[in-house]
Amino acid sequence: MRNLIRFLKLNQFLLLFLIIEGFSIFLLLSNNSYQANKAINYSTQYTSLIHNYFHYFSDYVSLKQTNEYLVAENAKLHTMLKHEESFHDSILVKNKMFSYQSAKIINNSINKRNNFITLNKGERHGVKQGMGVITHNGVIGIIYSVSENYSIVISLLHRKSSVGIRLLKNNHNGILRWEGFDYRTANITNFPSHIALNKRDTIITNSHSVVFPEGINIGSIVDFKKDEEGYYNVKVALFEDFNQLNFVYIIHSSETEEQQILEMKVTDE
């Protein structure tokens, strides 16, 4: 204890400088998106290497489970391609304007207020900022930052994440957000109360997004209550378990840029 006190006294100015400097960097990154993005790009190149080596070992241990998953996915895709007419509800077939690229998750968080996911695909694989990320169970997030070999995804479990949704049974639209409490659920707020809702109603993506194809399953309603303004606050159980993510699909629409340019012209006018 004496040695610790002596050390603190001898280095008090250096420690104070480091604390102030660290706090200043924190404020800079918290309030400036450009600097924060650059910092994430820089750190991704190095931290992702560490995560990658860790996953090489974990992949080897779970090789049997991984192979079983890939065999099942391949069988599913072959079936859809062979019998395309009988799979009108399949996202991979129905939305041919979207291209799909598989990726492996090498880092993931679920217990923070703002969660991110690291993928083993980057610029050299054709990945760009703004691309959507999904699984066969639902929406995962949007590409936020890209380096040469890796990319960072803003998870659906993030305070700034929002997804345009549609109630499958009657086509009413809304916005799905995560309130930061449970990685298994998300919420739709300000949903009109005149709309008939039932527990277990399915929620899917709507046609308003240029990031995600229409009709991707997201979750099902588990509860809904009226707020003070008379709107529904709808609780949705997500189909995808974010605590067990392994493989994902990065998706991109060849027509996204054309739509965005056209809409920007209308906005500018």
Question: What topology does this entry show?
Answer:
Blueprint: H1 2-10, H2 12-31, H3 33-61, H4 63-82, H5 91-94, E1 98-108, E2 114-119, E3 132-135, E4 138-146, E5 151-158, E6 162-167, E7 173-177, E8 185-191, E9 202-205, E10 217-226, E11 232-238, E12 247-253, H6 256-268
Antiparallel strand pairs: 1-2, 1-12, 2-5, 3-4, 3-12, 4-5, 6-7, 6-9, 7-8, 8-11, 9-10, 10-11
Tell me what the structure shows.
- The protein has 269 residues and is an alpha+beta fold.
- It folds into two domains: 34-159 and 245-253, Thrombin, subunit H (Beta Barrel), CATH 2.40.10; 162-242, Thrombin, subunit H (Beta Barrel), CATH 2.40.10.350.
- It has six helices and twelve strands.
- It has helices at residues 2-10, 12-31, 33-61, 63-82, 91-94, 256-268; strands at 98-108, 114-119, 132-135, 138-146, 151-158, 162-167, 173-177, 185-191, 202-205, 217-226, 232-238, 247-253.
- Strand 7 and strand 8 (185-191) form a beta hairpin.
Name the strands of the widest sheet in spatial order: 1-2-5-4-3-12
What is the CATH homology-level superfamily of the largest domain? Rod shape-determining protein MreC, domain 1
* Regions with little confidence, pLDDT below 50 for 5+ residues: 82-94
Radius of gyration: 22 Å
- Class by alpha and beta content: alpha+beta
- Percent of residues in helices: 25-40%
Largest sheet features: 6 strands, antiparallel, barrel
What is the ordering of alpha helices and beta strands? HHHHHEEEEEEEEEEEEH
- Give the domain tally: 2
Give a count of the beta strands, DSSP E runs of length 2 or more.
Answer: 12
